[in-house]
Amino acid sequence: MSDLHLYNTLSAQKERFVPIHDGKVGMYVCGMTVYDYCHIGHARVMVSFDVIYRWLSRYFEVNYVRNITDIDDKIIKRANENGETIGELTARFISAMHEDADRLGCLRPTSEPKATDHIPQMLDMINTLQSKDLAYQGASGDVYYKVANFPEYGKLSKRKLADMQAGARVLTVDDKDNPFDFVLWKSAKPFEPHWQSPWGLGRPGWHIECSAMSTCCLGESFDIHGGGHDLQFPHHENEIAQSEGATGKQYANNWLHVGFVNVDDEKMSKSLNNFFTIREVLQDFHAETVRFFILSSHYRSPINFSDTALKESHTALSRLYHALKPFEVVEIDETVWDGEHGQAFVRAMNDDFNTAQAMSVLFEVAGEINKAVKADDMAGGLKFAVILKTLARVLNIAQTAPKAFLQAQIGDESISESEILAMIDKRKQAKADKDFALADQIRAELEEQGVALEDGRSGTSWRRV
């Protein structure tokens, strides 16, 4: 696997990937704070790292860890608003998160540690940081990380602490030594969940949770740390400061960050009323269409989410399914990886998991299928169908029955299947009555609503276009 190169945010360049332990990879991805349904930005992180996980697993034994934050200010606030316990709230949204990820075709991570199960490890790390003069307790009872005592602070985001201090408009908090010091342990407030600690009753800060869970599950140094681009600073920067400050070792060798999701060219935000949950989107679009949309761009690039973009993705993915349609059963054949198209696909994926380029290979293969079918060379068409199905499996697309996908609804205004079938029956009767003008009119009406009819020996089939 020496040909795999990935873009490392830490070095700001592509590097050949070499795992710490031969044949094994440890990968930690920042997961969800479970107080609400997952949104389309979460979907991009889920799907992007699912494909990275699948590709790495072809060559390595991968320990994929994605944490769950189940204690947080937002969680406490939402539970109080709902009149339910924190445990009830988080259990409900963990279940919803799994439902969404499963529908998007994502494999479950190797493990999903919860923050509340790792309080002792967090306390140990904070103790170590305090013993190294990297943490202190303020007058409020909160414990802070002392960023000035970690010379490499800012190395991931390429920011210098002195520059940030000079240009920042930050009100100094009374018990902080530096306005950029961040909380490790929050002192308990009335009626909030808390744990016993050397600094009194309290609960962990957000950043320390990931440092403790990642090192607990993967060791003090591991191969890949990932998450959304928005986490690069301050969350991931703070993780480095905590972990490397405590252990004196490099924390993660490679940092991968998934690009932003914009909605109609604007940043997704509840305040802008352009915030979409995964389950809202899946009400109107096939889950594989959403997955295809996400993978049609390189994971580091920003993408623009819109109904139009999803409809275009559905149309593009339909081309692959339409190519596979003549072949009801297509077996997987791993030997295709040694062929021309297989090697082109491998080169794309080994170039920083370039799914967009890999998909272009799939469309080339689909073109070969169509040529063979047009020439009535069904054996040749089947050969290329096997190639398409095998390569696409790594992306987990084009794996369902073509008919089911081609008839899936596109958008919330699509004509329903029952309406389509009723019009097909009406057209059939019109043809029987030799009213060919009416039959042609019905075909045209369906085409206007994005439905194509195909007449064959076995009757009329249909698909959305």
From TrEMBL:
Positions with a binding annotation for ATP = K270
Molecular-function GO term, any one: ATP binding
Motif 'HIGH' region is found at 32-42
The protein's Enzyme Commission number: 6.1.1.16
- The residues the record assigns to binding Zn(2+) are C30, C210, H235, E239
Q: Which cofactor does it need?
A: Zn(2+)
Q: What does the subunit comment say?
A: Monomer.
| Record-level GO cellular component terms | cytosol
Write out the entry's keywords from A to Z. Aminoacyl-tRNA synthetase, ATP-binding, Cytoplasm, Ligase, Metal-binding, Nucleotide-binding, Protein biosynthesis, Zinc
Listed HAMAP family: Cys_tRNA_synth (MF_00041)
**EC top class named in words:** ligase
Domain Cysteinyl-tRNA synthetase class Ia DALR, residue spans: 344-406
Q: Name one GO biological process term.
A: cysteinyl-tRNA aminoacylation
Q: What is this protein called?
A: Cysteine--tRNA ligase
- Quick one: where is this thing mainly located? cytoplasm
UniProt signal peptide: none
Q: What does it catalyze?
A: tRNA(Cys) + L-cysteine + ATP = L-cysteinyl-tRNA(Cys) + AMP + diphosphate
By sequence similarity, the record places it as follows:
Belongs to the class-I aminoacyl-tRNA synthetase family.
Source organism (scientific name)? Moraxella nonliquefaciens
